[in-house]
Automatic annotation (TrEMBL):
This is PBP superfamily domain protein. GO terms for molecular function: DNA binding. Gene3D superfamilies: Periplasmic binding protein-like II. Residues 102-292 form the PBP domain. It holds the Pfam family HTH_17. Residues 7-54 form the Helix-turn-helix domain. It comes from the Bacteria. It comes from Oxobacter pfennigii. SUPFAM superfamilies: Periplasmic binding protein-like II, Putative DNA-binding domain.
Length: 318
Protein backbone atom coordinates (compact mmCIF):
# COMPACT_ATOMS: atom_id res chain seq x y z
CA UNK A 1 0.00 0.00 0.00
CA UNK A 2 1.39 3.42 -1.00
CA UNK A 3 2.44 5.38 2.10
CA UNK A 4 0.56 8.43 0.79
CA UNK A 5 -2.69 6.51 0.29
CA UNK A 6 -5.63 8.13 2.05
CA UNK A 7 -7.60 6.01 4.51
CA UNK A 8 -11.04 6.60 5.97
CA UNK A 9 -11.44 6.53 9.80
CA UNK A 10 -13.10 3.11 9.46
CA UNK A 11 -10.14 1.74 7.48
CA UNK A 12 -7.76 3.11 10.13
CA UNK A 13 -9.90 1.48 12.83
CA UNK A 14 -9.69 -1.89 11.09
CA UNK A 15 -5.92 -1.63 10.60
CA UNK A 16 -5.37 -0.76 14.28
CA UNK A 17 -8.13 -3.14 15.47
CA UNK A 18 -9.89 -0.40 17.42
CA UNK A 19 -13.31 1.26 17.31
CA UNK A 20 -13.88 4.06 14.80
CA UNK A 21 -14.74 6.42 17.66
CA UNK A 22 -11.29 5.75 19.13
CA UNK A 23 -9.74 6.88 15.83
CA UNK A 24 -11.59 10.20 16.09
CA UNK A 25 -10.44 10.51 19.71
CA UNK A 26 -6.79 9.93 18.70
CA UNK A 27 -7.14 12.61 16.03
CA UNK A 28 -8.78 15.01 18.49
CA UNK A 29 -5.95 14.50 21.01
CA UNK A 30 -3.35 15.12 18.31
CA UNK A 31 -1.92 11.61 18.56
CA UNK A 32 -2.82 10.74 14.97
CA UNK A 33 -2.39 13.17 12.07
CA UNK A 34 -5.42 13.68 9.84
CA UNK A 35 -6.89 16.16 7.37
CA UNK A 36 -10.25 17.00 5.83
CA UNK A 37 -11.44 16.70 2.24
CA UNK A 38 -14.66 18.68 2.34
CA UNK A 39 -16.55 17.18 5.26
CA UNK A 40 -14.66 13.88 5.18
CA UNK A 41 -11.73 13.00 7.47
CA UNK A 42 -8.78 11.23 5.87
CA UNK A 43 -5.53 9.78 7.28
CA UNK A 44 -2.40 8.93 5.30
CA UNK A 45 -1.01 5.40 5.60
CA UNK A 46 2.39 6.80 6.62
CA UNK A 47 0.79 8.59 9.59
CA UNK A 48 -0.86 5.34 10.73
CA UNK A 49 2.54 3.60 10.54
CA UNK A 50 4.17 6.45 12.49
CA UNK A 51 1.51 6.14 15.20
CA UNK A 52 2.04 2.36 15.43
CA UNK A 53 5.81 2.79 15.68
CA UNK A 54 5.45 5.38 18.45
CA UNK A 55 3.28 3.07 20.56
CA UNK A 56 5.62 0.15 19.97
CA UNK A 57 8.45 2.16 21.49
CA UNK A 58 7.00 1.69 24.99
CA UNK A 59 8.55 -1.64 25.96
CA UNK A 60 9.92 -3.53 28.91
CA UNK A 61 13.06 -5.65 28.94
CA UNK A 62 11.03 -8.51 30.34
CA UNK A 63 9.25 -11.29 28.46
CA UNK A 64 5.98 -9.32 28.76
CA UNK A 65 7.61 -6.37 27.06
CA UNK A 66 8.64 -8.67 24.25
CA UNK A 67 5.01 -9.78 23.98
CA UNK A 68 4.06 -6.14 23.32
CA UNK A 69 6.63 -5.91 20.55
CA UNK A 70 5.64 -9.23 18.92
CA UNK A 71 1.94 -8.58 19.11
CA UNK A 72 2.02 -4.99 17.93
CA UNK A 73 0.05 -4.13 21.04
CA UNK A 74 2.50 -1.41 22.06
CA UNK A 75 1.43 0.27 25.26
CA UNK A 76 -1.97 -1.47 25.28
CA UNK A 77 -0.60 -4.31 27.41
CA UNK A 78 1.83 -3.36 30.14
CA UNK A 79 3.82 -5.53 32.49
CA UNK A 80 2.22 -3.74 35.43
CA UNK A 81 -1.30 -4.43 34.15
CA UNK A 82 -0.73 -8.16 33.78
CA UNK A 83 1.07 -8.48 37.11
CA UNK A 84 -1.78 -6.65 38.83
CA UNK A 85 -4.20 -9.34 37.73
CA UNK A 86 -5.39 -7.82 34.45
CA UNK A 87 -7.82 -9.90 32.40
CA UNK A 88 -6.70 -10.05 28.75
CA UNK A 89 -8.79 -11.33 25.85
CA UNK A 90 -6.67 -12.10 22.82
CA UNK A 91 -7.92 -11.94 19.21
CA UNK A 92 -8.83 -9.64 16.35
CA UNK A 93 -12.56 -10.00 15.69
CA UNK A 94 -14.95 -7.16 16.57
CA UNK A 95 -17.14 -9.63 18.50
CA UNK A 96 -14.43 -9.67 21.18
CA UNK A 97 -14.74 -5.91 21.59
CA UNK A 98 -18.46 -6.41 22.11
CA UNK A 99 -17.76 -9.21 24.58
CA UNK A 100 -15.41 -6.93 26.52
CA UNK A 101 -18.12 -4.29 26.75
CA UNK A 102 -20.67 -6.82 28.04
CA UNK A 103 -18.11 -8.12 30.53
CA UNK A 104 -17.45 -4.66 31.90
CA UNK A 105 -21.19 -3.93 32.28
CA UNK A 106 -22.11 -7.29 33.84
CA UNK A 107 -22.91 -7.23 37.60
CA UNK A 108 -20.29 -9.92 38.18
CA UNK A 109 -18.01 -8.78 35.37
CA UNK A 110 -14.55 -7.30 35.12
CA UNK A 111 -12.77 -4.79 32.92
CA UNK A 112 -10.96 -6.68 30.18
CA UNK A 113 -8.02 -5.53 28.12
CA UNK A 114 -7.92 -6.48 24.45
CA UNK A 115 -4.78 -7.83 22.77
CA UNK A 116 -5.17 -7.58 18.98
CA UNK A 117 -2.89 -10.40 17.85
CA UNK A 118 -3.32 -13.32 15.47
CA UNK A 119 -4.38 -16.84 16.37
CA UNK A 120 -0.94 -18.44 16.56
CA UNK A 121 0.55 -15.73 18.80
CA UNK A 122 -2.58 -15.73 20.95
CA UNK A 123 -2.21 -19.43 21.74
CA UNK A 124 1.47 -18.93 22.50
CA UNK A 125 0.70 -16.14 24.97
CA UNK A 126 -2.03 -18.25 26.62
CA UNK A 127 0.55 -21.01 27.13
CA UNK A 128 2.98 -18.46 28.61
CA UNK A 129 0.29 -17.18 31.00
CA UNK A 130 0.28 -13.65 29.60
CA UNK A 131 -3.38 -13.68 28.53
CA UNK A 132 -6.46 -15.29 30.06
CA UNK A 133 -8.44 -16.04 26.89
CA UNK A 134 -7.20 -16.74 23.37
CA UNK A 135 -9.19 -17.10 20.17
CA UNK A 136 -8.23 -18.95 17.02
CA UNK A 137 -9.24 -19.93 13.50
CA UNK A 138 -6.33 -22.19 12.58
CA UNK A 139 -6.98 -24.78 9.87
CA UNK A 140 -5.00 -28.02 9.82
CA UNK A 141 -4.63 -29.20 6.22
CA UNK A 142 -3.93 -32.82 7.15
CA UNK A 143 -7.02 -33.40 9.29
CA UNK A 144 -9.34 -30.69 7.94
CA UNK A 145 -9.97 -29.65 11.56
CA UNK A 146 -9.92 -26.17 12.99
CA UNK A 147 -8.02 -25.24 16.16
CA UNK A 148 -8.05 -28.53 18.12
CA UNK A 149 -4.80 -29.87 16.55
CA UNK A 150 -3.07 -26.55 17.21
CA UNK A 151 -4.26 -26.29 20.81
CA UNK A 152 -2.93 -29.79 21.49
CA UNK A 153 0.47 -28.94 20.02
CA UNK A 154 0.87 -25.37 21.25
CA UNK A 155 -0.41 -25.79 24.82
CA UNK A 156 1.19 -29.15 25.65
CA UNK A 157 0.50 -30.62 29.05
CA UNK A 158 -2.05 -27.92 29.90
CA UNK A 159 -5.70 -29.07 29.81
CA UNK A 160 -7.78 -26.59 27.84
CA UNK A 161 -11.41 -26.04 26.89
CA UNK A 162 -12.38 -24.96 23.37
CA UNK A 163 -15.66 -23.05 23.05
CA UNK A 164 -17.16 -22.24 19.64
CA UNK A 165 -17.90 -18.63 18.80
CA UNK A 166 -18.90 -18.43 15.14
CA UNK A 167 -18.55 -19.75 11.65
CA UNK A 168 -17.13 -17.27 9.13
CA UNK A 169 -16.88 -17.60 5.37
CA UNK A 170 -13.32 -17.22 4.08
CA UNK A 171 -12.40 -16.59 0.47
CA UNK A 172 -10.69 -14.41 -2.12
CA UNK A 173 -11.18 -10.69 -2.58
CA UNK A 174 -10.91 -9.87 -6.28
CA UNK A 175 -11.56 -6.74 -8.33
CA UNK A 176 -15.20 -6.14 -9.22
CA UNK A 177 -16.19 -8.31 -12.16
CA UNK A 178 -13.26 -10.69 -11.53
CA UNK A 179 -11.39 -9.65 -14.70
CA UNK A 180 -8.79 -12.43 -14.35
CA UNK A 181 -11.38 -15.18 -13.94
CA UNK A 182 -10.06 -16.35 -10.58
CA UNK A 183 -11.88 -19.38 -9.18
CA UNK A 184 -9.86 -20.98 -6.37
CA UNK A 185 -6.58 -22.00 -4.79
CA UNK A 186 -5.22 -23.51 -8.04
CA UNK A 187 -5.10 -20.02 -9.54
CA UNK A 188 -2.19 -19.23 -7.25
CA UNK A 189 -0.05 -21.31 -9.61
CA UNK A 190 -0.55 -18.73 -12.35
CA UNK A 191 2.29 -16.32 -13.14
CA UNK A 192 -0.07 -13.42 -13.89
CA UNK A 193 -1.47 -13.27 -10.35
CA UNK A 194 -0.30 -10.89 -7.60
CA UNK A 195 -1.50 -11.24 -3.99
CA UNK A 196 -1.50 -9.21 -0.80
CA UNK A 197 -0.82 -11.42 2.22
CA UNK A 198 -1.73 -11.40 5.92
CA UNK A 199 0.87 -11.32 8.68
CA UNK A 200 2.54 -14.48 9.98
CA UNK A 201 0.59 -16.05 12.84
CA UNK A 202 -2.85 -14.94 11.66
CA UNK A 203 -5.41 -17.64 10.97
CA UNK A 204 -5.82 -16.37 7.40
CA UNK A 205 -2.08 -16.67 6.75
CA UNK A 206 -2.09 -20.22 8.13
CA UNK A 207 -5.04 -21.06 5.87
CA UNK A 208 -3.14 -19.86 2.79
CA UNK A 209 0.10 -21.59 3.74
CA UNK A 210 -1.64 -24.90 4.45
CA UNK A 211 -3.33 -24.85 1.03
CA UNK A 212 -0.05 -23.94 -0.66
CA UNK A 213 1.64 -26.85 1.12
CA UNK A 214 -1.03 -29.29 -0.01
CA UNK A 215 -0.82 -28.00 -3.60
CA UNK A 216 2.98 -28.11 -3.63
CA UNK A 217 3.25 -24.38 -4.30
CA UNK A 218 6.11 -22.33 -2.88
CA UNK A 219 5.21 -18.88 -1.60
CA UNK A 220 8.45 -17.63 -3.15
CA UNK A 221 6.90 -18.21 -6.57
CA UNK A 222 3.82 -16.06 -5.88
CA UNK A 223 4.07 -12.36 -6.63
CA UNK A 224 3.27 -10.32 -3.55
CA UNK A 225 3.56 -13.21 -1.08
CA UNK A 226 5.97 -11.22 1.12
CA UNK A 227 3.73 -8.13 1.21
CA UNK A 228 1.81 -8.24 4.50
CA UNK A 229 -1.14 -6.33 5.91
CA UNK A 230 -2.75 -6.73 9.33
CA UNK A 231 -6.49 -6.55 8.64
CA UNK A 232 -9.11 -7.96 6.27
CA UNK A 233 -10.33 -4.47 5.41
CA UNK A 234 -6.87 -3.21 4.50
CA UNK A 235 -6.39 -6.31 2.31
CA UNK A 236 -9.70 -5.73 0.51
CA UNK A 237 -8.91 -2.03 0.05
CA UNK A 238 -5.57 -2.88 -1.56
CA UNK A 239 -7.31 -5.15 -4.07
CA UNK A 240 -9.99 -2.54 -4.77
CA UNK A 241 -7.29 0.04 -5.55
CA UNK A 242 -5.57 -2.32 -7.98
CA UNK A 243 -2.63 -3.08 -5.69
CA UNK A 244 -3.16 -6.87 -5.96
CA UNK A 245 -5.29 -9.35 -7.89
CA UNK A 246 -6.11 -11.50 -4.84
CA UNK A 247 -6.49 -10.89 -1.13
CA UNK A 248 -7.72 -13.47 1.38
CA UNK A 249 -10.19 -12.68 4.12
CA UNK A 250 -13.69 -13.13 5.44
CA UNK A 251 -16.85 -12.22 3.54
CA UNK A 252 -18.09 -9.74 6.15
CA UNK A 253 -15.08 -7.43 5.81
CA UNK A 254 -14.96 -7.65 2.03
CA UNK A 255 -18.55 -6.49 1.67
CA UNK A 256 -17.59 -3.19 3.35
CA UNK A 257 -15.29 -2.24 0.47
CA UNK A 258 -16.56 -0.91 -2.84
CA UNK A 259 -15.15 -2.40 -6.02
CA UNK A 260 -14.68 -5.89 -4.57
CA UNK A 261 -16.14 -9.28 -5.43
CA UNK A 262 -15.89 -12.14 -2.95
CA UNK A 263 -15.13 -15.73 -4.02
CA UNK A 264 -16.11 -18.11 -1.17
CA UNK A 265 -13.67 -20.95 -0.47
CA UNK A 266 -14.44 -22.47 2.94
CA UNK A 267 -16.24 -21.88 6.21
CA UNK A 268 -13.89 -21.53 9.15
CA UNK A 269 -14.50 -22.13 12.85
CA UNK A 270 -13.69 -19.26 15.16
CA UNK A 271 -13.21 -20.59 18.70
CA UNK A 272 -12.31 -19.41 22.19
CA UNK A 273 -9.66 -21.24 24.21
CA UNK A 274 -9.54 -21.19 28.02
CA UNK A 275 -7.32 -23.18 30.37
CA UNK A 276 -9.43 -25.83 32.10
CA UNK A 277 -8.10 -24.80 35.52
CA UNK A 278 -9.75 -21.39 35.00
CA UNK A 279 -13.16 -22.44 33.74
CA UNK A 280 -14.88 -22.34 37.16
CA UNK A 281 -13.39 -19.00 38.18
CA UNK A 282 -15.83 -16.09 38.36
CA UNK A 283 -14.68 -13.97 35.36
CA UNK A 284 -14.59 -16.99 33.05
CA UNK A 285 -18.02 -18.18 34.16
CA UNK A 286 -19.31 -14.69 33.41
CA UNK A 287 -17.73 -14.77 29.93
CA UNK A 288 -19.48 -18.05 29.15
CA UNK A 289 -22.76 -16.72 30.50
CA UNK A 290 -22.47 -13.69 28.22
CA UNK A 291 -21.64 -15.53 25.00
CA UNK A 292 -24.51 -17.95 25.63
CA UNK A 293 -26.98 -15.13 26.29
CA UNK A 294 -29.76 -14.10 23.95
CA UNK A 295 -28.67 -10.44 24.13
CA UNK A 296 -25.11 -11.12 22.96
CA UNK A 297 -26.27 -13.36 20.11
CA UNK A 298 -28.86 -10.81 18.99
CA UNK A 299 -26.24 -8.05 18.78
CA UNK A 300 -23.96 -10.24 16.66
CA UNK A 301 -26.88 -11.16 14.41
CA UNK A 302 -27.44 -7.44 13.88
CA UNK A 303 -23.86 -7.03 12.66
CA UNK A 304 -24.21 -9.94 10.23
CA UNK A 305 -21.59 -12.15 8.62
CA UNK A 306 -21.53 -14.80 11.36
CA UNK A 307 -22.96 -18.31 11.57
CA UNK A 308 -24.02 -18.39 15.22
CA UNK A 309 -25.94 -21.64 15.46
CA UNK A 310 -23.28 -23.22 17.73
CA UNK A 311 -22.32 -20.07 19.64
CA UNK A 312 -21.14 -21.05 23.13
CA UNK A 313 -21.02 -24.77 22.40
CA UNK A 314 -18.20 -26.87 23.89
CA UNK A 315 -16.08 -28.06 20.97
CA UNK A 316 -13.42 -30.10 22.76
CA UNK A 317 -11.34 -30.55 25.88
CA UNK A 318 -7.65 -31.24 25.48
Amino acid sequence: MDENSALTPQEVADILKIAKNTVYELIKRGELNAYRVGKKVRVDVKDVEEYKNRTKSIKSDSHLGNFNERSGAGSLITEEFIRSGGFVICGQDVMLDILSRYLQMHPHGIQALRAYVGSYNGLYELYQGNVQIATAHLWDGDTGEYNVPYVKRMIPGVPAVIIHLAGRLQGFYVTKGNPKGIKGWEDLKRNDITIINREKGSGTRVLLDEHLRKLGISGRNIKGYDRESTSHLAIASTVARGGADIGIGNEKSGLQVKGIDFIPLQTERYDMIIKKEDIEKAPFKTVLEIIRSREFKTELEGIGGYDLKDLGKLVAET
